[in-house]
Amino acid sequence: MRSAWARIDLGGLRHNMARVKQLAPHSRILGIVKANAYGHGLVEIARALTEHDSVAALGLARINEALRLRQAGISCPIVLLEGFFDAHELPLLAASQLQPVIHTEQQLQMLERASGLSAPLKVWLKVDSGMHRLGIAPQQLAAFQQRLRACDNVAGEPILMSHMACADERGHAQNTHQQAVIASIRALTPPSSLASFANSATLIQFPELQADWVRPGLMLYGASPVAEKNAAELDLKPVMTLCASVIATRDIKAGEAVGYGAHWVSRQATRLGVVAIGYGDGYPRHARTGTPVLINGKRYPIVGRVSMDMLTVDLGDDDIEAGATAVLWGLDRGLDTSRDETSEHSDSRAVLHVEEVAAFADTIAYELLCNIAQRVDYEYVE
Ligand SMILES: Cc1ncc(COP(=O)(O)O)c(C=O)c1O
Question: Could you identify the atom of ligand 1 that is nearest to the CA of residue 134?
Fold first, then answer.
């Protein structure tokens, strides 16, 4: 019996990649693989995304992840979405051909003052169009572009970029505001200079913002980036299936409490399954009683608190034995396909979307995916 493992479906990843191409046929793809490829395994995902030049570049937030990719022989362009943090990192960026995003005056000065770089850097220039997290003000754009063009440490024209704060909610007023700001900054840049404004939600909801480069992350991993549609409706396939074994079953009587804090008390006699996964594996401790788990294609509710290494599900009258596989999210290849809850897009296997589980734990799919702990085994399948 195995404890917890993540099955990563590279065929699903390729399918989602093809969906990005279908939705944004005129844009180059900057595949976002930060945070261990959203928990899917940095090097394996980067290899799969870069084979046959499927993506034109990879995007990361941390230099250490970029260096891991270079050490693994990944040679495609790599963009550092927060740029560099200190001047001493610049020689490393030049030597490893990493492309920083410039978003502050300080970074620009470090770049202007650097000497002895092995090669000039290709850079991206981030403008704050209203998210107010990273980026220079639109009024600073012309001056920054001029200084970057004049800087010997910069190769070619900077690629203009900005990020949308609310693209997951199509009708949010912030979208109209940011679109107007983006239109105004585009009007200030020469048509020959390239631009990028779209993460997954933006490229789906606002095709007019796809521009020269799209920057999909979440949708590559098969989760829905938009509030109104689930992954199946967007024709995205879950890439990660998180599994664990049922390691024990026990019958309890009505009125008996289960787990830490005696938090949940059974109303009737029932059978419990103890599943070998907990918050020590990255499964969210805040998943409420009622959060679904799939076993043999059927949904069972978690009951009681999730503990570090285990959680319990209410199996009712079902005859499930220790050794069965529980699917915490993803595709269940279990035996009972008669209770198939899938759409035509999910290969007629039962599916539990990570977004659904996230809602039960008051969080988002991003957090669940990138929180998978190191002790979880990974297997890569086609
Ligand atoms: C600048 C930037 N672009 C693209 C992405 C990818 O976003 P998503 O995973 O929503 O597609 C991120 C993710 O946080 C980001 O920070």
Answer: 1
pLDDT per residue as tens digits for the range 17-37: 999 999 999 999 999 999 999
Q: What is the pLDDT of residue 175?
A: 95
Per-residue DSSP letter, 138: G
**3 state DSSP class of 130:** coil
Q: For the domain with range 10-221, which CATH number is right: 3.20.20.10, 3.30.390.50, 3.40.50.11460, 2.40.30.10?
A: 3.20.20.10
First vs last C-alpha separation in the chain? 23
Confidence grade of residue 337 (pLDDT, cut at 50, 70, 90)? very low
* Inter-residue contact 367 to 278 (CB < 8 Å): no
Active-site annotation holder among 34, 122, 237, 298: 34
Same fold flag, 10-221 and 240-381:
no
pLDDT reported for residue 52 = 82
Instruction: Return the bridge partners of 101, or none.
Output: 124
Residue 14 CB neighbours (<10 A): 19
Residue nearest to atom 12 of ligand 1 (CA): 199
- Residue 334's pLDDT is 62
CATH number of the structural domain 240-381:
2.40.37.10
The Cα 267–Cα 331 span in angstroms is: 31
Answer whether 263's CB lies under 8 Å from 352's CB.
Answer: no
Contact 99, 157 (CB under 8 A): no
Amino acid 18 reads: A
